């Protein structure tokens, strides 16, 4: 069913540099959430903090009733088994072929036999379309293949929580479309809790149940997809529309006067853009019961919008 992750008042800094502060959100069990934010706002740091690779300064991360920021290293090691993580750079071992890379967590964390390991590795490689590339080294394959190998490795332990750091960067649009479908199908099949960091707005609009946005050291918003898409909060609108006009600048944050001027200029293109249709699990994949609840939630929100003045 996946597990819920409850983050409260989380703050992280490196030296004097505050990365983000007072971040509170709940990743609902079994749902797909997306985290957006300009480059450098600490999205990767957030994922690494969730798995316990980085320690926050303040706040808590509660999983299955335990605050993982307070666990001893040995207990943390156990909790990490709940996670599958696809790091931003794939983080494959350069000297190991894809088969051994993907088998690594199984050999490290389980006592499965080599034949059992083989079955799982080949199943996951098939799932991400890498069958036949078992003997290749990471340096011999394309960036897209490395991403998919990282994804296969994130899946081998049947994780309850899967964190993806930009699974779609460096992929061509067709592969991104396939990857999105793969994510939605996977979520329907294994029903784990997903958190995806992406810069791809089209994906963010159609894949998740929930969207969050980090900006200026704060979590600007986190909530149901439809709510964020309907939001008229300037940062959310700018990001979900991929516009230059708005509070987010190229190198540094813009000053308030410029933002004001730009916001006055832009045409009303609706809140955060037209509602996007949700990507559904492919044919033959049974939808878990929560899909009914989500459909109801969307209909309610939609209804509320229609009736509001
Ligand atoms: N281990 C570290 N020590 C010191 N500073 C760090 C460390 N890791 C990250 N940072 C800093 O934290 C900030 C956020 O980095 P992070 O990689 O999380 O950004 P991001 O939102 O993932 O960006 P991108 O979209 O480009 O991947 C950056 O200023 C970075 O330099
Ligand atoms: Mg990053």
TrEMBL record:
It comes from the Bacteria. InterPro entries: AAA+_ATPase, ABC_transporter-like_ATP-bd, ABC_transporter-like_CS, P-loop_NTPase. GO terms for molecular function: ATP binding; ATP hydrolysis activity. Keywords: ATP-binding, Nucleotide-binding, Transport. Pfam families: ABC_tran. SMART domains: AAA. Residues 265-288 are annotated as: Disordered. Residues 5-241 form the ABC transporter domain. Residues 271-284 have a biased composition (Low complexity). PANTHER family: INTERMEMBRANE PHOSPHOLIPID TRANSPORT SYSTEM ATP-BINDING PROTEIN MLAF (PTHR43023:SF6), PROTEIN TRIGALACTOSYLDIACYLGLYCEROL 3, CHLOROPLASTIC (PTHR43023). This is ABC transporter ATP-binding protein. It comes from Streptomyces griseoluteus. The lineage of its organism: Bacteria, Bacillati, Actinomycetota, Actinomycetes, Kitasatosporales.
């Amino acid at each position: 069913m996946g597990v819920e992750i409850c983050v409260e008042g989380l703050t992280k800094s490196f030296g004097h540099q505050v990365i983000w502060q007072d971040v509170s959100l709940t990743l609902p069990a079994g749902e797909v959430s997306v985290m957006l934010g300009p480059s450098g706002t600490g999205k990767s740091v957030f994922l690494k903090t969730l798995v316990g690779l980085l320690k926050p300064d303040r706040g808590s991360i509660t999983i299955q009733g335990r605050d993982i920021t307070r666990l001893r290293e040995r207990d943390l090691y156990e909790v990490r088994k709940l996670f599958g993580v696809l790091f931003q750079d794939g983080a494959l071992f350069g000297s190991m072929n894809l088969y051994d890379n993907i088998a690594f967590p199984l050999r490290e964390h389980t006592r499965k036999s080599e034949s059992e390991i083989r079955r799982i590795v080949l199943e996951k490689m098939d799932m991400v379309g890498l069958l036949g590339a078992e003997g290749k080294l990471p340096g011999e394959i394309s960036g897209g293949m490395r991403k998919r190998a990282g994804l296969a490795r994130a899946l081998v332990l049947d994780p309850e929580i899967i964190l993806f750091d930009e699974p779609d960067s460096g992929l061509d649009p067709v592969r991104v479309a396939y990857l999105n479908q793969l994510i939605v199908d996977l979520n329907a099949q294994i029903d784990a809790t997903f958190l995806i960091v992406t810069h791809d707005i089209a994906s963010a609009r159609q894949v998740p149940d929930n969207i969050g946005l980090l900006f200026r050291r704060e979590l600007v918003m986190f909530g149901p997809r439809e709510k964020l898409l309907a939001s008229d909060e300037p940062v959310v609108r700018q990001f979900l529309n991929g516009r230059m006009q708005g509070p987010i600048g190229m190198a540094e944050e813009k000053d308030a006067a410029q933002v004001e001027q730009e916001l006055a200029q832009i045409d009303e293109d609706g809140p955060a853009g037209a509602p996007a249709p949700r990507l559904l699990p492919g044919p033959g994949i049974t939808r878990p019961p929560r899909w009914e609840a989500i459909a109801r939630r969307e209909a309610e929100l939609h209804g509320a919008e229609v009736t509001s003045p």
